[in-house]
Write a structure and sequence with these properties.
The structure is a homotrimer.
Chain A lengths: L3 E2 H7 L11 E2 L1 E2 L9 E5 L5 H6 L4 E5 L12 E4 L2 H12 L9 E2 L4 E2 L4 E2 L4 E2 L4 E2 L4 E2 L4 E2 L4 E2 L4 E2 L4 E2 L4 E2 L4 E2 L4 E2 L4 E4 L4 E3 L4 E3 L5 E4 L4 E2 L4 E3 L5 E4 L4 E2 L4 E2 L4 E2 L4 E2 L4 E2 L4 E2 L4 E2 L4 E2 L4 E2 L4 E2 L4 E2 L8 E3 L4 E2 H34 L1
Parallel strand pairs in A: 3-4, 4-5, 5-6, 7-10, 8-11, 9-12, 10-13, 11-14, 12-15, 13-16, 14-17, 15-18, 16-19, 17-20, 18-23, 19-24, 20-25, 23-26, 24-27, 25-28, 26-29, 27-30, 28-31, 29-32, 30-33, 31-34, 32-35, 33-36, 34-37, 36-38
Antiparallel strand pairs in A: 1-2, 21-22, 38-39
Chain lengths: 346, 346, 346
């Protein structure tokens, strides 16, 4: 773990020099778990008890948080504790262990493949014919890159990633262990006796600066391409069907599923375990709540939630009414009785 | 990419010869994306704007679609545009890149394993003792086949597939990258202090012509076998628990989950992210809508939907009523006020 | 398959010696599927038809089950048929095929890694620098263990498992094929132009006696550790986000998803496809029904269900009311008509 002094930390965050500036700090932790050599942070008064007892060397405190007058902690006030933590993590981050420059002797590189300078190719990697591996690309142990694949500069593929044939990755793409790109899209036609496979002859095109988690499946298109826009970030265990088009800068949270030919605009957020029906279009800057199932197009800048997904405000209204439904059933029965009584006595 | 002339295409689809029959076509694309060397298709009037501006060499048009009188495109009228596209995709499909005949020197083949003629075994494949690999089987790089496994003729297992010990695959089974067959079923008993593993000593038996997507998990049975019926097709990231019996010709869409001992009849369709409770039986030709959770047996030829799943018609009725529920709450309150007023004035 | 005589089986289960005690039994199966050399079991009268026709050598019968007076089967009465079956499965279980003692020549073991005695390391395994592999550990073919990883004694990692750098596993941990531990947690900040990755510099710590299914993803912490408590069992395709803390002896069923910083107490059960929102705490001994979405903290010893999850009793009440909702809408309309009529005639 790398180490910084409190003075160095203050400089990194554009803060005035703190007292005890030479004190070394080797990491960040929660108030409860931090050791005397770690920094911690306080973003809300909810954690003041932990603040009182923390062993942390110093605490980054969000400016609006009211500290007890008599505290004796070394504190650094910041505008945004989350942002400050993120910046410091960049400095504390240990380097990712990578294969050495060049290729491991056990890697299989087809004669027709081209590997650019700076590439690091680990044990048991497979690179198929006619594939082009960009500069400084890291292929960790056991990665499979099929034939006629293009991988842009500075990409990193973690162990066990599979990139099937004819796929294109932009630059600076990160794909975590166990993800699979280019499986045939799921398409069959019934011929009266059996399901007959519809060939899936398209590809997958991934833009620059995309990051893809573990065990993600992105299917190849029936024809043309399944596309992931630049800067989009995809969490683990996500399913992306054939001919899906994901716009730039989207966030797709774990276990979400996008059926065939779904289109996401720019900056769309899909919550965990959300599901999008085939051919649905979701507009720019829209968001789908976790566990929702979207069966119809969503306008730009709209939040939807529920199963089936509705505009979020309507969904909340229905949920509130549903909480009252059991009582409503009773109330209506009593109303009926009162009314019947009234009609009788009239 | 393979190339066909328009005349050849017309012949394949049993259509009259078109004008410009020698024009070469090298693929299929959407109207918007097709180049001058590609074919496109029009199945509905919804896309007439794209039809007007497409660069496609020719367009397959569904017979009932009304084209503008003055269009100048080269069109081929067909009864079913989807079917015509599927047939042409079979001709345009490039061959899947495969390892050469025989076995790569880096493959580990146990001495007691038998490999039939025509097999193609890629780098770093593992085949355990007493396993039998059928004719023309393709094991792509990094496939793991445990001990005492039987793989029928003409199967293809993509990179990283794991087949644990004592499993049987029929003929022409396709398993896409990253799927795992034969993990122990999830079963424990609580002995008062801890969960004690219940041994899972059964197997998995996969029928002929089954296709399994990527990152699918099919657990081995507690005893006897987890079974996947012939001709069934399974999408990515599906979970199939121990002792499940899936009938023939089923379709199981991405991220569906079948708990232990579920039974599916013949021709059942499970939508994406659907979940089936353990021991539930779903009858022949029934269908479960996406995102549904099935907790009770389903009769044959029945569509169910919702969480919990209900007959689809009932589910739709409840959803329609739920849309009106917030207003209903208000209406009942007003009714009560009116009634109270009436009783007071009586 | 191992074989036992009926006498040996009776001894194992503390039962009186049965007639035909020398009869050999080589396995267990359902009444319908059992051969004459297999044992079967009957836990409920629901299966008396199968009992009448079974070919099983003998049947374990739950004591409270009433058998027909004239049956001629060889039966062994037991207090708990499930428990008896579990105990016998332990004896019938064939050994798991494992790599031989030592390391396969194709394995990559970094010079700085230490491997304890009794370890079995299969083909194409990768073990990174400074990693410590405990006694009797089994690393099946193609397992990846990154740098500075600690694996306790008697662990077994199945093919294709990936353990990224700086992770710690306790003793007797089982991880099934295709699971990934230590992927970066899913965290970004928007800098006005793009999502910027927040470094994830923490680790994953897995306790003793944990079992993890296939294609499970457990992300490393942003800082500190994602923790899985001792004795916890995790099914296939589960997502566990960064900084999650799972208590001891939990059961997490297939396709469940735990977002970042979720905390589970001791003995918590999460149903299949359940989802837990980030930062939610679930108390000791609580349970979440399958397909539920938990958005708020759950007290100890509480069962919740539904989307959003509510106390189970309330959830059932709402579901029952929802079944009546379409009729309620009609009833309220009629009430309104009757009331209007009454007011008119007043």
């Amino acid at each position: 773990m790398r180490s910084l002094t409190l003075s160095q930390i203050a400089t990194l965050l554009n803060l005035p020099a703190p007292g005890d500036g030479n004190r070394p700090v080797s990491g960040i932790s929660t108030l409860a778990e931090a050791s005397e050599r770690e920094l911690s942070f306080l973003g809300s008064e909810k954690y003041l008890d932990d603040f009182a007892t923390t062993k942390a060397a110093a605490v980054l405190v969000q400016k609006r948080v009211k500290l007890p007058a008599d505290h004796k902690k070394l504190v650094l006030f910041v505008d945004d504790a989350d942002l400050a933590v993120a910046k410091l993590l960049e400095h504390f981050a240990p380097p990712v262990p990578r294969p050495p420059l060049g290729r491991d002797h056990s890697a299989f590189i087809a004669p027709g493949a081209s590997i650019s300078e700076g590439a690091r190719i680990g044990p048991n990697v497979f690179v198929g014919d006619d594939s082009r591996i960009g500069k400084n690309v890291v292929l960790h142990a056991g990665v499979y890159v099929g034939c006629d694949v293009t991988i842009g500069d500075d990409c990193e593929l973690f162990p066990g990633v599979v990139i099937r044939e004819r796929i294109t990755l932009g630059s600076r793409v990160i794909i975590h262990a166990g993800s699979i790109l280019g499986t045939d899209g799921f398409g069959y036609r019934w011929d009266g006796k059996q399901h007959v496979k519809i060939p899936q002859i398209g590809t997958v095109i991934v833009g620059d600066d995309v990051e893809i988690g573990s065990c993600v499946c992105i299917d190849r298109a029936k024809f043309s391409a399944t596309r992931i826009g630049r800067g989009t970030k995809i969490d683990n265990l996500v399913q992306i069907g054939h001919n899906v088009v994901v716009g730039p800068h989207c966030i797709i949270v774990g276990q979400a599923g996008l059926a065939g030919s779904v289109t996401l605009g720019s900056g769309v957020v899909l919550g965990g375990q959300s599901a999008i029906r085939d051919h649905v279009r979701i507009g720019d800057q829209s968001a789908v709540a976790a566990c929702s199932g979207v069966a119809e197009d969503v306008d730009p800048k709209t939040i939807v939630s529920g199963l089936p997904a509705l505009p979020h405000r309507q969904s909340l209204r229905e949920q509130a009414a549903l909480r009252r439904l059991p009582d409503l059933v009773v109330q209506v029965r009593k109303l009926q009785e009162q009314l019947d009584e009234l009609r009788k006595t009239k």
